[in-house]
């Protein structure tokens, strides 16, 4: 499990560049690497700090949890930063994730519409809360069902902290390898959190061109099936 108490981020590849132009950079973040640096010298290494070392000005647009892998957008110019952040804030960016969940998925397609709130004094844990929670909406699609786990595609419409993890757990299908929300068998079934930001669609901040990006994960094959190492 990636942890801030024993932070040992992967060193290769140093930066997995999916796309770069004069305005933006799209990177494939590995599990175990912080999106932004934490407090203290031991937490200085991050996706953003690496981008700044190579590109100079670089500002992160979207973040992924330490354990989550996949696509992260970084602005390389101030005006591009404002435009890209506005796209995310106005929910104009299409995001799709791949996840392996524990159990039998009962429907091939579905939507989770459950409000989320911080779980007391236990950050960064969130939970479903109809009293104080903020609206959170996730669509899911079953891609492959195995005996004890399933590969699914997740499309978050909102962007709450731990949204996908809590929504799947609320359905009884925690994400495999999730030390925050899964049961012990589901945690033990993988060496990492099996959640990957696989697809992203946004507008180039100057030209307005629609850009679509994809990033391979280490647990799904090119044919779209769960890799043998993450199978039963």
Automatic annotation (TrEMBL):
One of its GO terms (biological process) is tRNA processing. It is an enzyme of class 5 (isomerase). Pfam families: PseudoU_synth_2 (PF00849). The active site is at residue 65. It catalyses: a uridine in RNA = a pseudouridine in RNA; uridine(746) in 23S rRNA = pseudouridine(746) in 23S rRNA; uridine(32) in tRNA = pseudouridine(32) in tRNA. InterPro entries: PsdUridine_synth_cat_dom_sf (IPR020103), PsdUridine_synth_RluA-like_CS (IPR006224), PsdUridine_synth_RluC/D (IPR006225), PsdUridine_synth_RsuA/RluA (IPR006145), RluA_PseudoU_synthase (IPR050188). Residues 23-170 form the Pseudouridine synthase RsuA/RluA-like domain. Keywords: Isomerase, rRNA processing, tRNA processing. It comes from the Bacteria. One of its GO terms (molecular function) is tRNA pseudouridine(32) synthase activity. Its EC number is 5.4.99.-. Dual specificity enzyme that catalyzes the synthesis of pseudouridine from uracil-746 in 23S ribosomal RNA and from uracil-32 in the anticodon stem and loop of transfer RNAs. Responsible for synthesis of pseudouridine from uracil. Belongs to the pseudouridine synthase RluA family. This is Pseudouridine synthase.
